């Protein structure tokens, strides 16, 4: 199969590209720079110079399937960044894929698409999307998912995979942030890290992506999860330990963290400060709210089961 991957120089897209090449597929990948070219070639894939704002059918010519993993996932950025890349970029990818004759479009979504800032406990895929969420990332990922599912048509099957708290080797966002904060002495828990969460190891997500190339019900979304649940403190502490780090026990109340995140954002916007604020509303919300999900639909509809446990994944991180 010839597969086009977006985000292949990043965590999820890169892992998917390496796995699919190893499985004998031909992988082509969106690349915006020479640096991305090198990362994509290192994964065994062929770089195609385009981006989410310029991609055309010609860039995807001959591809059977598209895996759309690219997104603006940063907690901070220009006010329009999330909409430009997550919504308009996804719509352009859908149009290019259809015009190029691809028969399957796999969108890497997220549980954030159902988040307004509330606790989520035991939710399955019937839980409503949050296209009007006050958090731009959540709102735009919901809007993007709606576009993907609406685009499903005979001859053009669309599937949405929703991981939660993606972690594992190659992580370019979460673990590096924890490591940097810990080394700078800035790590602080919110509500003592007691929030309970579902998680998704990168190997389990990649396994689900491979299954979705041929399986699943077109137009549907699937939560892709590790088995069981874990507190934020336990999973982040385990990840930090893999880097030889011991995190302090200092903590902020959740309500205070929410106020601090809003204040930081306001200051950074109003005074046009460079760099990222030390805390955002979204980051505070993620760390203080429970988010536990039910993955039964992926088991029955995709034939998915985790290929690695959380305990095995943490042990492998430490060994690596």
Low-confidence segments: none
Strands of the largest sheet, in order across it? 3-2-1-4-5-7-12
Shape: globular
Strand content: 15-25%
Give the overall pLDDT as a whole number: 96
Main sheet characteristics: 7 strands, parallel
List the helices and strands and how they pair.
Blueprint: E1 2-6, H1 11-22, E2 26-31, H2 34-42, E3 46-49, E4 65-68, H3 81-100, E5 104-108, E6 120-123, H4 136-150, E7 157-163, E8 166-167, H5 174-183, E9 189-190, E10 196-197, E11 200-201, H6 202-212, E12 221-224, E13 230-231, H7 232-241, E14 251-252, H8 254-270, H9 281-288, E15 291-293, H10 296-301, H11 310-319
Parallel strand pairs: 1-2, 1-4, 2-3, 4-5, 5-7, 6-15, 7-12, 8-11, 9-14
Antiparallel strand pairs: 10-13
Helix pairs in contact: 1-6, 3-4, 8-9
Description:
The protein has 320 residues and is of the alpha/beta class. The chain is 40% helix and 17% strand. It has a 7-stranded parallel sheet with strand order 3-2-1-4-5-7-12, sandwiched between helices. Helix 3 (81-100) links the parallel strand 4 and strand 5 (104-108). The longest helix is centred in the N-terminal third of the chain and has 20 residues, at 81-100. The protein is globular and about 55 Å long. The model has no long low-confidence stretch (mean pLDDT 96).
């Amino acid at each position: 199969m010839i597969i086009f991957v977006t985000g292949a120089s990043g965590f999820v897209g890169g892992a998917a590209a390496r796995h699919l090449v190893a499985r004998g597929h031909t992988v082509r990948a969106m690349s915006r720079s020479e640096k991305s070219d090198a990362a994509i070639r290192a994964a065994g894939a062929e770089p195609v110079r385009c981006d989410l704002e310029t991609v055309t059918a010609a860039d995807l010519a001959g591809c059977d399937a598209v895996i759309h993993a690219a997104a603006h996932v940063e907690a901070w950025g220009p006010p329009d960044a999330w909409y430009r890349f997550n919504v308009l970029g996804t719509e352009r990818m859908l149009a290019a894929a259809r015009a190029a004759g691809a028969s399957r479009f796999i969108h890497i979504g997220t549980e954030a698409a159902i988040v307004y800032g509330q606790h989520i406990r035991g939710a399955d895929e019937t839980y409503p999307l949050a296209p009007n969420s006050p958090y731009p990332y959540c709102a735009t990922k919901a809007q993007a998912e709606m576009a993907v599912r609406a685009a499903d048509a005979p001859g053009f099957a669309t599937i949405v995979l929703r991981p939660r708290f993606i972690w594992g080797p190659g992580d370019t966002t979460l673990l590096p942030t924890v490591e940097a904060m810990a080394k700078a002495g800035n790590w602080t828990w919110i509500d003592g890290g007691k929030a309970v969460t579902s998680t998704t190891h990168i190997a389990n997500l990649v396994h689900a992506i491979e299954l979705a190339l041929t399986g699943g019900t077109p137009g549907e979304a699937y939560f892709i999860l590790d088995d069981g649940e874990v507190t934020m403190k336990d999973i982040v502490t385990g990840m930090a330990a893999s880097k030889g780090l011991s995190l302090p026990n200092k903590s902020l109340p959740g309500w205070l963290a929410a106020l601090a995140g809003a204040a930081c954002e306001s200051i950074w916007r109003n005074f046009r400060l460079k760099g990222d604020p030390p805390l955002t509303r979204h980051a505070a919300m993620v760390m203080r709210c429970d988010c536990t999900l039910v993955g039964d639909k992926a088991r029955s509809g995709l034939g998915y089961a985790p290929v690695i446990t959380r305990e095995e994944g943490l042990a492998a991180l430490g060994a690596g």
